[in-house]
Design brief:
The chain is built from 16 helices and 26 strands. By secondary structure, the protein is of the alpha/beta class. A seven-stranded mixed sheet has the order 10-16-15-14-11-13-12, with helices on both faces. A six-stranded mixed sheet has the order 1-2-3-4-6-9. Strands 8-7-5-17 form a four-stranded mixed sheet, with no helix packed on it. Helix 3 packs across helix 10 and helix 5 runs antiparallel to helix 11. The chain is globular and about 75 Å long. The termini are far apart. The structure holds beta-D-glucopyranose. Beta-D-glucopyranose binds next to loops.
Length: about 700
């Protein structure tokens, strides 16, 4: 008995000593210290081999990339996964994550609250899957309308849009103890030859046009940044001292620590000194760090450089909570949920852009008897809801446009019907005498007859794109333009719903009554479309890209895109004239301008006041239904600045009940009034008179004013 008590006491004592010892030997777990101090404390305990382990990936595991845990020091494994529009599960686990709408769709909401909701849902799914690094969001500015990955990028063609929306998005992801990854740094603006092409672009253009979305991510505390495959001014991105070492590290990050991870196999050397911290997916170059004679400083790599890279990784790991809240999710987990499906639907609906709506055809009144014909492959037979490549997610289901209409009207789809039949499917009716028929559109005579027979014709068209390939034209292809024109010539109430990965051509736009656009709407595409068609959601999405009249309307020469000398040199001769900035500068009217999008209600603007610290305006909902206006502020710089005519510098979403009024204030900072000075390598506030234009799109200006910035 005595013996047993002594033993218990000894054990208790030993445990107490262990706890005390562990507090002493794991000083990095002291929550009072800031993340960087904790990283230093941990680094001090690491062997060189352990440090090098953190600087590159391994191929084992279920994730896009993996850095093994260092169990001796309780350093968690890093599980990096694509992204950006959901968790890309291994094939055998397809359907276990939500197929969210594309990141460009999020851009089309112009809504920071939606960005936060999207980020929260993404963070939850990644955490549930045990992935503590989300390879997203994509932040490249859409310079080339054909670029195959534009759908993965938040900014569309405007850096300010991305700069603003990325902040709540990154914060929300990281609040779930998942590190976000801003990709692809930088000027990975085309997929053709992306692994070798040199983007030849000057410093001012880089800072003003291409860096701001990344700056927004940095402002939000993003933990990691991915360097891209391409070269910039002839030097590979992941070893480019100018863009990585100086611009990103010194000028944008400054003392803030985030790590730079290579895109998969985008390394060409042990470029630690140039600013790369981690090589993925294996250690092609970085594996050899241990074999280098570090004392001799061969390959320009020193222990100090290795330590610095490890600190760049460990600091955000502490800051985002990877040590204090280790994830217990597993890749096998099914992380979809009704709540996340709802987020997917809400974002896709809020991003749906109403391009035109003649005679107020939309919304359709779902309480009245009606017959609807849904046409087109995109309608049901072959619905594209996502783009391809590393950003693709196989969702548990896809709601097609036809299904969306059926669900909205409470009509059951007959069992066994797939949507791929040669003959029309339907009419399928409910008790309210609302009937829907689907026809893919193979036979013109059948198409014409059905179009003539129905009250409303809904033509669902679409096109997709993906990684590694750019689109070859902006058309829809596959006879979809012809089908649209044919249907429209037989039905005055033709509504077109377009699903696209970026800008598309709309040659039939004058023939149809209404046009809706969504940018790869994800698994809830059809519900989101129907929410807008039947007016459950009043559209407030706005174009994040200009819709041109024709292919290559901006007149890119071959040297600008896809490049010359076997496509390996591209020259950004257009400078700041990207997207709408080019249209404004050249006085060209596009098919639909940047920022355009209609509502089922109307808004009145009044009482503009403007000075260099901000612009205020009164907005009234003058229609009969509640709705949200995206109030957009464009500034014209003093002509001495050499800027494009107008630039987006503020926006806000104002949700208003019918008859309600609110004041919208859009703050301006010195940075908003500055250009990048290449002599001083710094932002320089421009003195002179700024023109203020405020309105509903880049071309729908409701009020104008000006203010002056003194010398
Ligand atoms: C893509 C990245 C992606 C990575 C990992 C690369 O091909 O460019 O965006 O995160 O693969 O799958």
């Amino acid at each position: 008995m005595m013996l047993a008590t002594t033993k218990t006491l000894c054990l208790a004592l030993a445990a107490a000593v262990l706890v005390a010892a562990s507090a002493e030997v794991t000083p990095w777990m002291n929550l009072q210290d800031d993340p960087e101090s904790r990283a230093h404390a941990l680094l001090a305990q690491m062997t060189l081999a352990e440090k090098v382990t953190m600087l590159h990936g391994h191929t084992e595991g279920n994730y896009s990339g993996n850095v093994p845990a260092i169990t001796r020091l309780n350093i968690p494994a890093l599980n990096l996964n694509d992204g950006p529009q959901g968790f890309r599960a291994p094939e055998k686990l397809s359907g276990t994550s939500t197929g969210f709408p594309s990141i460009l769709t999020l851009g089309a909401t112009w809504d920071p609250d939606m960005a936060a909701a999207y980020g929260t849902a993404i963070g939850e799914e990644f955490a549930g899957k045990g992935a503590n690094v989300y390879l997203g969001p994509g932040l490249n500015v859409a310079r080339v309308p054909l670029c195959g990955r534009n759908f993965e990028y938040l900014s569309g063609e405007d850096p300010f849009l991305g700069y603003t929306l990325v902040q709540p998005m990154v914060k929300a992801v990281q609040a779930k103890n998942v590190i976000a990854n801003a990709k692809h740094w930088i000027n990975n603006n085309q997929e053709i030859n992306r692994d070798r092409v040199s983007a030849n672009v000057d410093e001012r253009t880089r800072f003003e046009m291409y860096y701001p979305p990344f700056e927004g991510a940095i402002k939000a505390g993003v933990g990691s940044i991915m360097c891209s495959y391409n070269r910039i001014n002839h030097v590979y991105s992941c070893e480019n001292n100018e863009t990585l070492g100086i611009d990103l590290r010194q000028r944008l990050l400054g003392s803030q620590r985030a790590w730079v991870v290579s895109d998969w196999l985008a390394t060409h050397s042990t470029s630690l000194v140039e600013g790369l911290d981690q090589e993925m997916p294996y250690g092609l170059f970085f594996d050899s760090l241990l074999e280098l004679d570090l004392d001799l400083d061969l390959h320009n790599v020193t222990v100090a450089a290795i330590d610095n890279a490890v600190l760049n990784i460990l600091t955000p790991m502490f800051a985002v909570g990877l040590f204090d809240h280790p994830l217990n999710g597993t890749v096998e987990a099914n992380v979809t949920s009704p709540a996340h499906n709802t987020v997917a639907r809400k974002v896709a609906a809020a991003a749906t852009v109403l391009l035109k709506n003649d005679a107020g055809l939309l919304p359709l009144n779902a309480t009245q008897p009606m017959t609807i014909g849904v046409f087109g492959i995109q309608g049901d037979a072959e619905t594209w809801a996502h783009g391809g490549g590393s950003g693709s997610v196989t969702p548990p289901y896809i709601i097609t446009p036809f299904q969306g209409v059926l669900d909205a009207l409470g009509i059951q789809r007959p069992a066994g019907h797939t949507g791929q039949e040669d003959a029309p499917v339907g009419p399928l009716c409910n008790a309210r005498q609302q009937c829907v028929t689907y026809y893919e559109g193979q036979n013109d005579t059948i198409t014409e007859a059905l179009a003539e027979a129905v009250d409303v014709a809904l033509v669902a068209v679409g096109t997709a794109s993906g990684e590694l390939l750019d689109r070859v034209h902006l058309g829809l292809g596959r006879g979809q333009d012809e089908l649209t024109t044919l249907v429209a010539s037989h039905n005055r109430n033709t509504v077109v719903h377009v699903t696209c990965p970026g800008a598309v051509l709309t040659p039939w736009r004058n023939d149809v009554s209404a046009i809706l656009v969504g940018f790869m709407g994800g698994q809830e595409l059809g519900h989101a479309m129907a929410d807008v068609v039947f007016g459950h959601v009043n559209p407030s999405g706005r174009l994040p890209v200009t819709f041109p009249n024709v292919d290559n309307e901006v007149g890119f020469a071959e040297r600008q895109y896809p490049g010359i000398e076997d496509h390996l040199q591209t020259y950004y001769d257009e400078g700041l004239e990207v997207g709408y900035r080019w249209y404004d500068a050249h006085g060209v009217t596009p098919a639909f301008p940047f920022g355009h999008g209609l509502s089922y209600t109307s808004f009145n603007y009044s009482g503009l006041t403007a000075n260099s610290t901000g612009v205020s305006v009164r907005i009234a909902n003058t229609g009969s239904v509640a709705g949200a206006e995206i109030v957009q502020l464009y500034l014209g710089f003093p002509s001495s600045a050499g800027e494009p005519p107008l630039q987006l510098k503020g926006f806000a979403k104002a949700m208003l009940a019918p008859g309600a009024t609110t004041t919208v204030h859009l703050p301006l900072t010195d940075r908003d009034l500055s250009i990048w000075d290449v002599q001083d390598h710094a932002w320089s506030k421009v003195p002179g008179t700024f023109q203020v234009q405020i309105g509903s799109s880049s071309r729908d200006v409701r009020l104008a004013g000006s203010f002056t910035v003194s010398q």
